[in-house]
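seq:
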Amino acid sequence: MPGPVTAWGPSIPRWFTWLLRLLFLLVAFLISVVTFFFRRLPVSHRSLPPSSSIRERSLGQSRQEPFPAMAYLSMGEAHRRITDYLSRFCDAVSSQDAATLSALLAISSNFASLQAPADALNVFQDSNQLVNQVERYAQFAEILSPLLRCLQSYRLGRYSDAYVAFEKAANAFLQEFRNWETAWAMEAVYILALEIRLLAEKADRELSSSGKNTEKLQGAGSFLMKIFGALAGKGPKRVGALYVACQLFKVYFKLGTVHLCRSVIRSIETARLFDLDEFPVKDKVTYMYYTGRLEVYNENFTVADQKLTYALMHCSPNKEANKRMILKYLIPVKLSIGILPKQWLLEKYNLMEYNEVVKALKTGDLRLLRRALREHEDRFLRSGVYLVLEKLELQVYQRLMKKIYVLQKQKDPSKAHQLKIETAVKALNWLGMDMDMDEAECIMAILIFKNLTKGYISHKNKVVVLSKQDPFPKLNGKPVSS
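struct:
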């Protein structure tokens, strides 16, 4: 039967009222359960709103390395993952398994395989006690404890903390390595040298984004010198000295302190370590590349040509990007000694910024050279070859004067060796170069002084008297004399 009618309409049945009460109680219970478990989760497991994500990235988390969200882990599973990592480390040392040990130390370069223990460390917070409780782990506690902290910090995107922890672990590992008689762990030492540099670069980017001083890469350079000192002696361990030297070069070039490379080179050569046959090819290629770049900066183009050519010829055929890096410096060096690259080479390695430079040297058109320097100024400055290319102007002037000489020889062979400065001025003005007689005479004097032209200047007659035998000598692989 329907309920009684009131002034406000039909009354609500009593069973419906009880049903609503039960529903409210059930919803309240579910909310309390969800809230209870949510509070038990670590902060890193909770989803962040978009603004928090942006804030976290601004403190150093890289957009290029987004880590997947951490799945919920039980305490038991987290414990199992951490002990598995610790056991693998100890097993690798006891069995002298360098490959496994290297993979466990590759925090940055191989993080995908280390993500499971890294996630576990954010659930099981007392990893230090776990390391110290088991004697097998405790003997490597000075390595493992900071290494676990590094893993945890890296997973959370705190790269500065990760670097500090890794450096501490690497110092302890290096001490152990010094005590080992053989070089079985050399591959792991390579990983230490690589990781300390990569983590330092990430840490400095994080510090820079928060307005702090960037000092980690400089610290990495100091630590790499420690590794270099442990290797740069006699015995089987010295084979790793070249790899560590190359990591040092990368740090010094990044910091803009290339003068420090000289001390490393002297250490290798003085210690008589530098026998190319005993080092791996990839290390020799890297070493020649960086030392070749140093010779470019010092304008020692003959030695730079030898070193960079060696690097190019021995570079792996599959490493197109590495070949391009070498050619960025080898091409300016070749141009400086009078050797021009083929068009197909520039196109293959996408180095067309040198195209107009080559055309200028072929045609004697100074406008092309200056336009190329102007259009690609930032790129050439970053590479450090701008001044090298700017000095090619003398070769362009030589080519222009040679073209004038050839035209005169065709018109009147008997007077071909007498090049009027006025004719040179007209040619330069036709090319858009605003130049008077005195300036043109000065350029001719420099060409003669630099052995780019053979002859002498008759100042009274305003004529350059050219040699009848090879008046414009080729460089033939030698740089312009200073």
